[in-house]
Amino acid sequence: MNKLSLIWTCVCCLCFFTNCNDEYFYENNIPENLGKSIYDYLQNDGNFTTYIQLIDDLDYTEVLSKTGSKTLFVVDDETFSRFFENNPWGVKKYEELALSQKQLILNSSMINNALLIEGLSTIEGPVKGQVLRRTTAASVWVGLEKGEDLPDNVYWDRFRTNGIYLAKDATPIPMLHFLEAQMTSKNMTDNDFSILFNGAQRAKDDAYIYNIKVKQRDIICQNGYIHVLEEVLIPPSNMAEVIRTAPETQMFSSLLERFAAPYYSSTLTAQHQQLGGTDSVFVKGYFSTRSGTVTYNATNKTVMTPNGSTVANFLLYDPGWNLYKASETVGSFQTDMAAIFAPTNEALQSYFSVGSGRALIDRYGDVKNIPNEVLDKLVKNHMQTEFLSTLPSRFQTIVDDAQERMGIETSHIEKVYLTANGAVYVVNTVYPPALYSSVMFPAVINENIKVFNWAIEQLNFDAYLLSMVNYYSFLLPKDNFTYIVPTSLQHNQPEAWKFHYDYTRNAVYASVHPYDTSTHEIGDSINVVTTAATLKDHLEDMLDYHIVVGNIEDGKEFYRTKGGGTIRISRSGSQIEMAGGGDIERNTSLTVQDVYDQTKETNGRGNGKTYVLNQPMQSPLNSVYSILSTTSEFNDFFELLKGNDDLWTTDKVKAAKFSIFYKDLSQAGMDFNVRFLNTFHYTLYVPTNEAVQRAIQSGLPTWGDVEAATNQEEREAKAEKIIRFLRYHFQDNAVYLDKPSLSASYETATLNTNTDTFYKLNLTGENYSLNIKTASGGTAGVKTDKGLFNIMARDFKFNTANPATATTIETSSYIVIHQIDDCLYFEK
User: Fold this and answer.
1) Where is the FAS1 domain (predicted)?
2) Which of 482, 548, 754, 821 has the fewest CB atoms nearer than 10 Å to its CB?
3) What's the N-to-C CA distance of the chain in angstroms?
């Protein structure tokens, strides 16, 4: 094979693997300039003398003269002449270019691989039209910065006078390109392109590097390809830097920069010192969940600061991360980037002075006083993780923190900056987060409600409470509150915990105090709980009991909570009193200290009201077994419920079938639990002792009758009759005697074996009365003369087989108990 054939074989292979285009011209035609290297081509052409000088000055002559694999984006002398007339560096001629500027121009336009234009968008596979960004020969740049150039926060203060050697990111700036195959593959429209390029129009097969058009493409050389640009390529920095330096986004930048900090880099320091430097080098990182510089702890939901402490307020991602990845686990930086909708200075000023942000100024006095844990929500709502999902043609699909449409319109776009790691849409409006309109917001802005705010974030209740579809009544206790710990009540020493917020660790802890179950007295602290999992378990239970879906000011007395429990609300003039089941057990109630109106009717957007309390409401602590066993008026019905386990000691199946109460062998309760209740809410109707005796006299067997039966068949028949009778008094859904009228039917726990459905009870009532009609046509009414109605109970299941060692709540059932004047029968 002669030399020409060998070279042509190499070129054909190169075209095949990089372009993968069956119709490409050079697959069947030998180019005339095949024998020239990149350097030779540029030198012989005669129109690239400035670029040749650039190559020579940076000692790339030999590299670009020999065989290799390079792609070079060049500009001709005429373009350089225009550049020296007007450029961001202010240089007027080539000789004024600094070494670093020369390096930036050359290295940013060089890819260490041979790629045709459309090959730029091809990813491994090969799959066309996927790649948006590629690395170049550019390296990380370090500069000395000081004074007002540094962010205005405490992490930078020690460098403000003498300066800091700083890299804006530890990764190099990649090349961003827009190509026909890529735009087609990603359904990017011509109008999308026009908006992204600030009004520019494109033709089919146009190619752009950042916002610079390729005017001549695919010049094949012996050692790679040359593409000629219309303008000199000075790659823009990352989104954070572009926003920082753009005059119209200075105010938004000041919000972003609150989350920036300098992180020491041993790698860059070593490289700097190899070049003769003596100082340490730092990397600018932004507190965020995803960063190439900052460490995020997903378990604790905190980020590490340069001094080793942690902060709990941070951004969605690091806007300064050049090689930002749109997904943590799938793909690479090449296939997508991020986007930020950055409001103009005027838009933010209007938002804080006359817009809905005025409430923040009323609360804090000035923007600079608004804490980061409040502002991070506003900034994050303007950050999008996927650029391709924010194309103008997809604006209507962009949602906010409540997963509702943000309402972005193309008319909001003032201009667009295409940066190294994302698109910056400069907008003439502000998009407040749904959080600011939600019932959660008072927890965010109040310094004395840190505990519940921490719990909301740690337990991901924010997604639930951000919904603008529902109306919530959210009950918020202030910090340092006391909570009787259900899991401790069967310990040798029952406990009450006082919940506090640790500002150093940005975490919650609880001081442990002895609790006297008889006098309800609470002693001095004897221990501290810092285990996050244990604290979150109890806080989750509290949160479930402090959220009501609905308006608690609509005239009722009893309201069901998110977790299935019930709370009692009463009013005296403008004062609102609240009590949970545990509070009622101790004859206490809580007075609402403050009310935040977060309703849509008042504010234009919102989802309810928030009520601030000094203490949390306590859910019921007594089980059904405990209440019935200690209430003499329930004695005869309780005797039936207790059953007779001695009758079935050798048969576990029948022991379970013919019993109501049981002890779970793996998840203990307070004492005995009702066997068939699940994680739901129920009503138990307890007939008077007299009514039970009437039932027995009318033929209802007792457990004594079961024991006296002469054969097994008779014994089981009588036992089943008792159990089915008892289960008919347990109703799905907790129904309370209350003011509003009621007419409804609910299933019981007794199965109709003929229809394979559960027998029902039909209820009617109003103004604290409740009447029951049974499946057999009988009736009964709830007795109110002795106060044995609306009794709240809760059957717990803990995390251990022995309640004396329980630490967390696994699940529970809420039950309301009413005394009724007659027994309930599903059959005549």
Assistant:
1) 35-233, 621-824
2) 754
3) 106
Q: Does any domain span residue 124? A: no
Distance of CA 779 to the CA centre of its chain: 51
pLDDT band at 161 (very low <50, low <70, confident <90, very high): very high
Both 577 and 667 in a single domain?
A: no
CA 290 vs CA 336, 430, 459: distances in Å: 15, 24, 20
Threshold 0.85, pTM exceeds: no
Q: Dmax over Cα atoms in the chain, in whole Å?
A: 118
> Could you give the CA distance from residue 407 to residue 432 in angstroms, rounded to a whole number?
11
In a domain, 795, yes or no: yes
In whole angstroms, what is the distance from residue 799 CA to residue 253 CA? 49
For residue 198, the SS3 value is coil
Pick from 179, 198, 232: which residue ends a domain? 232
518 shares a domain with 446: yes
Secondary structure class of 738 (helix, strand, coil):
coil
Question: Cβ atoms within 10 A of the Cβ of 527, count?
Answer: 11
Specify whether 585 is located in the same domain as 652. Answer: no
The answer to whether residues 527 and 647 belong to one domain is no
* Cβ burial, residue 290 (10 Å; 0-12/13-18/19+): buried
Report yes or no: 758 and 749 within 8 Å, Cβ to Cβ. Answer: yes
pLDDT at 34: 56
d(CA 279, CA 274): 11
User: Cα separation of 294 and 286, whole Å?
Assistant: 7
What would the 3-class secondary structure string for 27-48 be?
HCCCCCCCCCCHHHHHHHHCCC
Q: Indicate the pairing of strand 472-477 with strand 608-613.
A: parallel
Question: 606 and 665: one domain?
Answer: no
Q: What is the DSSP letter of 336?
A: -
User: Position of tokens 């070593």?
Assistant: 270
Return the residue matching tokens 């749904």. Answer: 434
Q: Is the dihedral of CA 427, 429, 434, 436 positive or negative?
A: positive
Q: Measuring CA to CA, which residue among 488, 422, 447, 479 is closest to residue 210?
A: 422
**Comparing C-alpha atoms, which of 10, 3, 97 is closest to residue 51?**
97
Domain boundary among 575, 593, 613: 613
Render pLDDT for 23-65 as a digit per residue (tens, 0 to 9).
344 444 445 545 589 999 999 999 999 999 999 999 999 999 9
748 and 628 together in one domain: yes
| Inter-residue contact 438 to 598 (CB < 8 Å) | yes
d(CA 332, CA 328): 9
> What is the spatial distance between Cα 178 and Cα 387, in angstroms, rounded to a whole number?
13
Total residues belonging to the chain: 828
DSSP code for 807: -
Nearest to 783 by CA among 793, 774, 771: 771
Helix spans in 731-781 (H): none
CB of 44 within 8 A of CB of 222? no
- Model pLDDT for residues 733-781, shown as the tens digit of each residue: 999 999 999 999 999 999 999 999 999 999 999 999 999 999 999 999 9
Please name which of 669, 679, 629 lies closest in space to residue 489, comparing C-alpha atoms: 669
Structure token pair of residue 394: 């997809």
Residues sharing a CB contact under 8 Å with residue 117, sequence separation 6 or more, in sequence order: 179, 207, 214, 217, 218, 227
**607 and 631 part of one domain:** no
What phi and psi, each to the nearest 5 degrees, are found at residue 761? -120, 140
Name the residue among 688, 692, 667 with its Cα closest to residue 786: 688
- CA separation for the pair 18, 5 (Å, rounded): 20
Q: Which residues contact 470 (CB under 8 A, 6 or more apart)?
A: 549, 607, 608
* 426: three-class secondary structure by DSSP: strand
